[in-house]
Each structure stands twice: as structure tokens, then as C-alpha cells.
Specification:
This protein has 273 residues and is of the alpha+beta class. The protein folds into two domains: 76 residues, no CATH class; 168 residues, Endonuclease Chain A (Endonuclease, Chain A), CATH 3.30.870.10. 49% of the residues lie in helices and 15% in strands. It has an eight-stranded mixed beta sheet with strand order 1-7-6-5-2-3-4-8, with helices on both faces. Helix 2 packs antiparallel against helix 3. The longest helix is centred in the N-terminal third of the chain and has 29 residues. The protein is elongated, with a radius of gyration of 27 Å. It starts with a helix and ends in a 22-residue tail after the last helix.
């Protein structure tokens, strides 16, 4: 009984920011004042007390049922209902690197990672904890979508930028101890990219592919958990993305050749904004 009552209080109280709920609360307040005046006029206040209490309980129940229906329909429009807890201006902020440095599961999904050199220290710090695993997913340099994104950004060497990413990742893997290296996997995908996703456990940074600008330099939604409708969809997109494991290929990438070439990324220094 208490659980049901508590649930109703939380649902009704949580809707306090909705303009129509304020009118409802105002109506209940005025009703309470009006009933209080009536109590002093009529001869049987005890009976009226009972009627008032029953009436308010009915009104409260109707309000609760209405809020539940609105919540199911998604009409309250609160971002937290979708799993969105905030936004950051870009992926060079302190908050981002703090999250990516924590122990736990890491996800990186991008066409190519312009801020990879700045992220590697965070990866190394997180890998010191045995609970940390890292998945890095890049667009295949042979994909037709490379040309599309190259035209959107207005750069001529997008494929070369992916190759430089692979150089950096290869050196990163070689610098790790075997116990750490075994917890890092590298993948490539060949489908049309929808979002960039950088995640650490239950926190995800999700960005959009902007024309004439790198995705990491644009605003990122911060998502937490997996219960919100948007959070569920993003995680489903990542988990169902067709990709190929290229970890062993990347590990051998730098054998017999000089790694890390110069590439015009469109950013003066990819490690800082």
C-alpha cells in the first residue's frame, strides 16, 4: 500500500515543471481553502471532512493516472526520460577525458579519430585497472563512405587520416604489456556512419557528423544508462553494427615501416582545440 502511495507522490511531484500541472495544483489548493470555509458554515463538519478527503483522493488518483498516460506517450518531453543527462561543447573538454580515464568498458566509434593522440594517455591510465576493456571502431579506408565524408569536410586525404589512426593505434598496442593489450580490440565498419560514440561504462558521448567540421569539435549529447528511449536506440545501433575485427592486422601494422605520417586533418593541432 505504501509503495503505491509513494509512487503516486513521486509521479505527481515530478511533473511540477509542466505548466498544466501547476494549474492542477492551484485548483487543489483553492478547493482546500473553499472546503475549509464550508466546514465553518455547515453544521456537520465531520461529514464534510470525510467528503473532502475522499474527493481530494479521487482528484489525486485522476491526476496520477493522467500523468502515467502522458509519460507512456512521451508527452512530458523531459530529456532525462530519453537518457540524456547533459551536453558538452566538444570532445576536448576536461569532463570527457576524466570519464575516459576511469576504469571500465570503453567504446569509441568514429570514421576516424581526430583526437586519438590526446586520448591515448586516458586509455593507458584506464588500462591499469584489470576491469578496463577498450573497443575502437573505425570506418574502413576502402569504404565508399570515405569519399562522402571527405567531400563533406572539404579535405583531400581522408583515407590517409585513417591510415595515420591505424599507425597511432599500432604503436599504442605495442607499448602495452600483454595483459593490457589483450583487453583492447580494434574493428572497422563499412556502413554509412550515423553517429560518433565515445563511451565509458554507462556514460556515452554521442555526436553528429557536421558538414565542414570534425564531429568531435561539435556539441555532444551526454547519455547515461540504458533505460531511456534514446539511450536504448544508441546502444542498439552500436551493438548491431556490422564490423570486422582487425586487431591482429593493426598490431603488425608498423612492422618494417615508419609509422605516423603527416596528414592534413583540418585542425592545426589535433590534441587541442
Amino acid at each position: 500500500m505504501w509503495k503505491g502511495f509513494k509512487e503516486r507522490i513521486l509521479v505527481i511531484g515530478g511533473a511540477g515543471k509542466a505548466y498544466w500541472s501547476l494549474y492542477t495544483l492551484l485548483f487543489l489548493s483553492v478547493s482546500a481553502i473553499g472546503l475549509n470555509i464550508i466546514f465553518h458554515i455547515f453544521e456537520y463538519p465531520a461529514v464534510l471532512n470525510i467528503v473532502a478527503v475522499v474527493g481530494l483522493l479521487i482528484l489525486g488518483e485522476l491526476l496520477y493516472l493522467q500523468l502515467v498516460e502522458l509519460k507512456k506517450a512521451g508527452d512530458d518531453g523531459h530529456p532525462k526520460e530519453a537518457g540524456i543527462i547533459g551536453c558538452v561543447e566538444h570532445l576536448y573538454c576536461e569532463r570527457f577525458f576524466q570519464v575516459m580515464s576511469r576504469p571500465g568498458m570503453k567504446w569509441v566509434l568514429n570514421t576516424w579519430i581526430v583526437n586519438l593522440p590526446a586520448m591515448i594517455p586516458s586509455f593507458k591510465k584506464a588500462l591499469k585497472d584489470k576491469r578496463t576493456e577498450i573497443e575502437i571502431t573505425l570506418l574502413s579506408r576502402e569504404s565508399n563512405h570515405v569519399r562522402v565524408r571527405m567531400e563533406e569536410l572539404g579535405v583531400k586525404d581522408y583515407e590517409q587520416a585513417i591510415l595515420v589512426n591505424l599507425d597511432h593505434i599500432s604503436m599504442f598496442l605495442r607499448e602495452l604489456e600483454e595483459s593490457q593489450r589483450s583487453r583492447v580490440r580494434v574493428y572497422e565498419f563499412d556502413s554509412a556512419p550515423k553517429f560518433i560514440i565515445y563511451g565509458s561504462d554507462d556514460v556515452l558521448f554521442v555526436g553528429h557528423f557536421w558538414p565542414r567540421d570534425h564531429a568531435v569539435q561539435g556539441p555532444q549529447l551526454v547519455i547515461q544508462g540504458s533505460d531511456g528511449c534514446f539511450a536504448k536506440r544508441i546502444r542498439k545501433y552500436y551493438n548491431t553494427l556490422e564490423r570486422r575485427d582487425i586487431t591482429e592486422e593493426v598490431l603488425e601494422w608498423c612492422e618494417g615501416k615508419d609509422c605516423v605520417k603527416e596528414v592534413n586533418t583540418g585542425v592545426d593541432d589535433p590534441t587541442v582545440l
